[in-house]
Structure formats: structure tokens, C-alpha cells
Design a protein that fits this description.
This protein is an all-alpha fold. It has helices spanning 31-40, 49-65, 67-72, 77-82, 91-120, 129-140, 143-152, 161-169, 172-195, 198-201, 207-227, 235-255, 262-280, 292-310, 332-347, 360-373, 381-391, 405-426. It starts with 30 loop residues before the first helix and ends with a helix.
């Protein structure tokens, strides 16, 4: 199962020299302007710009309200860090605030804003501007519940100076719970986006867009349900989940007057998987009914692609190069080229495990190329992701080197591209 990558927070830099925020004789500044100056001097790369601005303000306030900052740094830092527009020329206080920002505010802001970047990594692309903006705003919205939990947890990460220092040195202690908080909030917002029919309101009827959003939601739900499970469920509990999902979907399909056909059966199967993952992730089934039209549009788009591929000429997904018509068969020189690519994959010693077993990705890539010789088209990387995700639903193969199906799809596509390129450049073995 693909995992959400936690943010990487660099080692804090030393605080800037005293009085760094002003020139001349007037040191007057307010908290928000002070942090704007601070943000401008932060070492790149920094996380999502809007999130960094928001999180610097939020963590400055959190730390200003922590009793130990006033007692251990300067009595005025509570006012200076908590009052956004109150101006002050308290030089000693602002110098103390600078130390707090360097030691704690910036690292904490980088961490919580960094989870926004983690979500950006799994967002589907490309998306139309309005849809992309909605998803970006959803990603940014996870920082509030995340920060609130970090402060309120027992023990809180800023309850004491030593607790704050411990977190700045090593955030891994919170990666598990924070991943779950982030995915939970994002899944909730994404579900609201789907259930509110926002795509239709924005005027997007393209089935491809609906497919990307549906697949993205399923990925997030599966990551939430499988990557960070609350606990192991018993067979009886899984059976109960299954009954609840089936009954819920049967009622939802009936309420919408869905006719029984192949598309309805496929939609039911996919939504059943989504429902099971929702229950495993602690998300209620209510709202899943609004995913039905989205799934039907996605399936319609897939059916259209399948009909198109029935008469399509196989092409290399990287170069777009035509292999041959499926009706006419491959030219001998092209078949030989693909055969050389297969041999390269199967003979490559770097694609074997310690016991000599071939890695799953290499086996799958070679098998795909063999099917092309028999007349099938090469899958695109996107199609590979969908196909491998289905194959791995029962579990990750023991000889796989990828941690999740999407990474496996990228690996397979890369192996095929490298092998074909090598075969074309080297000619006969």
C-alpha cells in the first residue's frame, strides 16, 4: 500500500543577529509584519507558501501562550507573539522572539505545512484550474486539526521546553498519528467535494476528470484504512463490515433506480471496496451514495477507452512509436526488438532477489512485453496503476520491491522504457 511521505524538517539555523528586523533607529513592528520578514529569510526549500505563512502565525501564537516561553526567554514574548497587529519597539523582547522563532516556530511551521506538500504528492494531475484549486485548499485545511492535536495531546509537543526540543530533533514519534489525522481530514473534505456534486456545479462533465477524482478518493481511503489501521479486525468484524456495506449500497442503488447491468455490477464492486476501506478507517458509510454517479461516469470512460483500443495500433507509452496493427501482427524486426527487451529484463542480475527470485516488477514487465508480441497494446502508466492496484488488493506480492501499487506501476513502466531503448540502440545481441 502506498504511504503518505512525512515532511522533512531541516536542522534549525542559529537565530539572526540582534535587531535584524529593522534599520535606523525605529524598531517598531507588529507580530504579523515580523513574521513576514522572518518568512522572507527562511532557507529554501520551504513548504507550500500559503501554509507556511499561516503556520508561522499559528505556532507563534501557540508558543507565545506556552507559559515557559515568557519565563525562560522574556516576559513580553507572550504579547509580542500572540497579538498579530499590536506594534511594539521592545527590542529585547523581539530579540527573544527571534530565538523562539529560530528554535521552535519555524521548525513546527515547516512540519505542519510540510504535510500539505505530502498531500500534493498524491494529488491527481493534470486537473482543470478550478478543480485543482479546490483540491489545493483541501490539502491546506489539514494543518488546523493537525496542529490542534499536537498541542492538545498528552504530552503536548510544546508543553515544556524539553518536549519542544525533543520534537524538533525527531518528529518520527508523531508520523503515525499525524499521517492518520491528515488523511482523515483530507478524506472528509474530499468526500464532501464529491457528495456536494461540486464537479457538476463547476461545469465539469468530462468523464476523465470524474475518473481521476474517483480514483484519487479511493486511493486516499485505502491509505487511511490500510496504511494506518487503528487495529487488526477479526474475521467476524470484517464479515459484519461486508454485510453493512452490501446492504447500504443495495439500498442506495435501489433509491436511485439503478438498472442491473455490467456497469452497475462493476460500480457496486468498486464502491464495496471503498465502503470497506471507509469502515476500516473509521469513516461512516453515509455519503457513499453520492459516489455512485461519479463511479458510473468513470466506468463509462473506461468502456470508451476499451472500445477505442480494440482497433488501436499498439504504441510505446514513452515515445508514442507505433508497433503494428493488432489485426496484421507485428513486423518481424519489431517483434525481435521486443524479444530482446524481454531477455534484457529477465537476464538483468540487478532485478533478482538474494535467493535468485526475480522481482515481481521485472516479471510483470516481461510478461506485458510478451503480450505485445501476441498482439496486445502496451498499457499506459495510468492504466498500469489501475491494473496493478486491482492485482494487489489481496496483498503485496512477496517478491515485489515497491511499497505500493502506484510505485510498482512507475517501476514497471520505467523497466519497459529502458529495455526497449536498449534494444533499439544495440540492435541484434
Amino acid at each position: 500500500m502506498e504511504r503518505l511521505n512525512p515532511p522533512r524538517v531541516p536542522e534549525p539555523e542559529p537565530p539572526p543577529p540582534p535587531g535584524w528586523w529593522y534599520t535606523g533607529h525605529d524598531a517598531t513592528i507588529c507580530r504579523d509584519d515580523f513574521l513576514a520578514e522572518w518568512r522572507a529569510r527562511m532557507r529554501p526549500p520551504t513548504p507550500d507558501t500559503k501554509s507556511v505563512k499561516n503556520q508561522l502565525n499559528r505556532w507563534a501564537g501557540n508558543l507565545g501562550r506556552a507559559g515557559w516561553t515568557s519565563s525562560e526567554y522574556h516576559p513580553s514574548v507572550r504579547t509580542l507573539l500572540c497579538e498579530p497587529r499590536t506594534s511594539s519597539a521592545e527590542v529585547d523582547g523581539w530579540n527573544a522572539a527571534s530565538v523562539i522563532c529560530a528554535d521552535f516556530v519555524e521548525p513546527f511551521a515547516r512540519y505542519t505545512a510540510g504535510w500539505v506538500d505530502s498531500l500534493h504528492e498524491i494529488r491527481p494531475s493534470p486537473l482543470p484550474g478550478a478543480v485543482g484549486r479546490h483540491l489545493r485548499d483541501m490539502c491546506r485545511a489539514v494543518t488546523k486539526p493537525l496542529g490542534d492535536n499536537m498541542v492538545a495531546a498528552k504530552p503536548g509537543v510544546i508543553a515544556t521546553r524539553s518536549a519542544a526540543r525533543k520534537f524538533v530533533r525527531d518528529q518520527s514519534q508523531r508520523h503515525h498519528i499525524d499521517s492518520e489525522i491528515v488523511l482523515q481530514r483530507y478524506a472528509s473534505l474530499l468526500g464532501d467535494f464529491i457528495e456536494g456534486m461540486v464537479l457538476a456545479q463547476l461545469g465539469y462533465d468530462d468523464p476523465e476528470i470524474h475518473t481521476r477524482i474517483a480514483d484519487h478518493y479511493d486511493l486516499v481511503i485505502s491509505m487511511l484504512g490500510e496504511q494506518t489501521p487503528r487495529r487488526e479486525y477479526t474475521d467476524d468484524e470484517i464479515a459484519d463490515f461486508d454485510i453493512r456495506v452490501r446492504e447500504f449500497l443495495a439500498a442506495a442503488f435501489a433509491a436511485r433506480g439503478v438498472q442491473r447491468d455490467a456497469d452497475a455490477g462493476e460500480a457496486f464492486i468498486r464502491l464495496h471496496t471503498t465502503g470497506m476501506n471507509r469502515l476500516r478507517g473509521g469513516i461512516p458509510l453515509e455519503g457513499l451514495q453520492y459516489h455512485i454517479p461519479l463511479r458510473f461516469r468513470a466506468i463509462a470512460a473506461e468502456r470508451k477507452r476499451e472500445r477505442s483500443r480494440a482497433t488501436e495500433i499498439p504504441v510505446d507509452p514513452e515515445t508514442g512509436r507505433t508497433f503494428a496493427s493488432k489485426r496484421d501482427g507485428l513486423p518481424p524486426e519489431v517483434a525481435d526488438e521486443i524479444a530482446r527487451a524481454i531477455r534484457r529484463i529477465r537476464d538483468d542480475p540487478t532485478l533478482a532477489l538474494a535467493d535468485g527470485t526475480r522481482v515481481w516488477e521485472a516479471e510483470f514487465a516481461a510478461d506485458l512485453l510478451a503480450e505485445v508480441i501476441l498482439g496486445d497494446s502496451l498499457m499506459t502508466e495510468r492504466e498500469l496503476k489501475t491494473h496493478i492496484t486491482e492485482l494487489w488488493k489481496c496483498g503485496r506480492p512477496t517478491n515485489a520491491r515497491s511499497t505500493g501499487p502506484h510505485l510498482a506501476a512507475r517501476d514497471v513502466a520505467l523497466l519497459i522504457r529502458i529495455a526497449l531503448t536498449h534494444a533499439r540502440e544495440t540492435g541484434d545481441d
